[in-house]
Design a protein that fits this description.
The protein is mainly alpha-helical and 283 residues long. The chain has 12 helices and no strands. The protein has one domain (44-123, 158-279): Double Clp-N motif. It starts with 9 loop residues before the first helix and ends with a helix.
């Protein structure tokens, strides 16, 4: 049986030893689940996407994430794109407008309008059609061309629902990020991490150029989730003793979330500033 090494932080390794956790069995089970999820995503056609009754690889996606995939597929089809790319996914995330990933970007002081402008500049031009093969004037016995099937246009439209290779990789990375965080769902915040980490897609290039470096973004997402859980618990407790939510509560929650994120990110920002000053990148 092949052997795969698993590296753990020192404190976790010590805790595993003390608890007597059967590492091999646990790792095999976790890897089996991860392989099933990733394989299912690779085989998914967005043309089969049902927002109300998700199946297969889509089961673990949140409603907002499924909406983003649907919007991305629609955008790709409208542009006549052969596949759904990472740019379509990021654009759909912006269009959806209410997901946690956007709060993370704002907290990182990355303007959503700037993301949209940079994304629009990266839209690839339409592919020129292949030149027609010249007819053979000397052949008189050539069979007449076969008429195109009536559903050719529909087939082309369905093709636009397939994920490009970078987009599929980004979605796979989103799943692995969710698993690494111990989550049993894939939200837009995980998709953001997948887009940032994927090296070849348009979305990752745009986001990284604006400062969404993978490690920093992962820290921001973790802080956002921690802040969200804390705020939701406080909100539910307040709602239990109040007949109706206070006016502007959503804005207050967003402001508190942003404050929480900035508090978590400040040590990293200060460290980067010191490194830049030390290397001469900043006066």
């Amino acid at each position: 049986m092949p052997k795969i090494n698993v590296y753990l932080p020192d404190d976790l390794a010590e805790a595993v030893k003390e608890a007597g956790v059967p590492v091999s069995a646990v790792c095999q089970r976790a890897l089996e689940q991860a392989v099933r999820r990733v394989t299912a995503i690779r085989e998914t056609s967005l043309g089969d996407l049902d927002l109300e009754k998700p199946t297969g690889a889509l089961t673990h996606l949140t409603a907002r994430t499924r909406t983003v995939l649907k919007l991305a597929a629609d955008a790709a089809r409208a542009q006549g794109a052969a596949e759904v790319g990472t740019g379509h996914l990021l654009g759909a995330m912006l269009t959806e407008g209410t997901n946690l990933a956007l709060h993370v970007l704002r907290a990182m002081e990355i303007g959503l309008d700037q993301v949209r402008r940079d994304l629009d500049r990266h839209v690839p031009p339409a592919t020129d059609p292949a030149p027609a093969e010249p007819a053979d004037a000397d052949r008189t016995d050539a069979a007449p061309p076969e008429p195109a099937p009536a559903d050719a246009a529909d087939a082309a439209g369905a093709g636009s629902r397939r994920l490009s290779s970078p987009a599929a990789n980004a979605l796979e990375l989103a799943v692995t990020e969710a698993i690494a965080l111990g989550h049993n769902y894939v939200g837009c915040e995980h998709l953001l991490l997948g887009l940032v980490a994927e090296p070849d897609g348009t979305a990752g290039q745009v986001l990284r150029a604006l400062g969404a470096e993978p490690r920093l973004t992962r820290r921001a997402v973790s802080a956002a989730l921690a802040g969200y859980v804390h705020l939701r618990a406080n909100t539910q407790q307040a709602a239990a003793s109040a007949p109706a939510p206070a006016p502007g509560q959503a804005q207050q929650l967003a402001a508190l979330l942003k404050t929480e994120l900035k508090t978590e990110l400040r040590p990293i920002v200060e460290r980067l500033e010191r490194l830049e000053a030390h290397t001469g990148l900043r006066p």
